[in-house]
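Box S1 | Example of a co-folding query
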Amino acid sequence: MRARLLCIVFAAGMIPLYIGMKLLQAMHWSQSYETRLEQVKEHGTTLAGLIAQNGYLQQQSQAEVTARIYTLADMLDGNVMLVNNGLVVVKDTTGRQDGKTLVSKEPISALNGETSTYYNEEEGVAEVVLPIVLGASAESTGQVIGAMILEASFGDIIEEQKQFQNNTILLSACAGMILLVVSTVVSGGMTGSLRTLAGRIDDITEANDGTRVTEDDNYAEVRQIAEAVDRMMERAAATEKSRQEFVSNVSHELKTPLTAIKVLSDSLILEPDVPIEMYREFITDINAEIDREAKIVNDLLSLVKLDKTSGELNIAEVNINELLEVILKRLKPLALKRGIEMVFESYRTVVAEVDEVKVSLVFSNLIENAIKYNRDGGKVMVSLNADHRFFYVKIEDTGVGIPEEEQGLVFDRFYRVDKARSRETGGTGLGLSITKGAVQMHRGSIKVQSIPGVGSIFTVRIPLSFVMTVQ
Ligand code: ADP
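Box S1 (continued) | Returned holo structure for adenosine-5'-diphosphate
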């Protein structure tokens, strides 16, 4: 990542630098070229004036003009050629074209009064063709009597341009070096932060002592990652804590009946002459403890099953009124034993898409609790209602109630408000967590309202139609 970051930062700086350098070089060349061309034209025009004045095109005897022509040729480091209006070369400083007739485009257009320029890049030579005009003044353009062809070497400005290019390259190289250092520092800083973070995560994972990863960092994004890791670790720690609690609770719960069985059987074994009545009584107790152990194991198995995904629900259309009536009928003997009255109130017929077994378990647990934690001669009221999306079942009792601070805890595994009473009634403390798990599998909710000494109300809300969520 560091190398990639370095390349990006470096390229981001180098590309504009390179373009800038090229642009500067082009501008420099165009300026030198234009200036030089202007100079050539200026000298040429002056000389053309002198030639026209002295009638040099007709008679090349004036030594002074000839000298000026050669001086200009020297100055241009090239040559000067004069053509008359018949396109015949009357003077060529190289002497090669003297007396020849030129039929090329440029002298012809010069005879029409136009100036043309041509630059031969390969040789670094510019050719300027000017008209030679007689009697030109501010008012009139005068008469074109011939043309002057100037060949000027641009070698010196080419040299100068090369020098300029070398300088800009040197400058860019320096800037590039600085950029490289800067991008190394910047990318190092960024990846360094991430590397430090990774190191801290490793250390903390190793130590596992609850130290937080989050600490001050220059980059907000790195801080965010650290915070996210902290949140994840907190969650993992909470899960681990609840797992440990669960294991220790399970062991404890399973040990209690075993201890009782051990004590009872030990006393039977150690006592030399046990009367048959005592045997009977102890064996009955041992049997009850075995039942309890079996109930805990069964409840635990139900809980484990609920931990699986909702994809394993066996969804079908179920008449909830009938389902509740069956449960109430089944639990009636239990209520009658303690003189508890059970009332079922239904506002409408409700048919919902649910897993019948799991929903039965939910309402059985709640109604059984309403009986178990009721006073003798109390009342249990079950009501069923629905709107267009959910059905609601309310189970109300006139029992011992649950203190407010414990109302949120009763759904935890193995949580019992009154341990002794719950044990007496055969409770394992798992019923409500199984109930809540089953309700949640149906994407429903459960809540409790309770006043100690007055009674409790458990309300369950479950969607009428089951929508499977994509896992
Ligand atoms: P248990 O098997 O002990 O009944 P539950 O998970 O069903 O376990 O309930 C947890 C605890 O919540 C019970 O031990 C009891 O103290 C309390 N509880 C549950 N239902 C009621 C109720 N209707 N009235 C009063 N307390 C209740």
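The two ends are 33 Å apart (CA to CA). The domain at 313-470 is CATH 3.30.565.10 (Heat Shock Protein 90).
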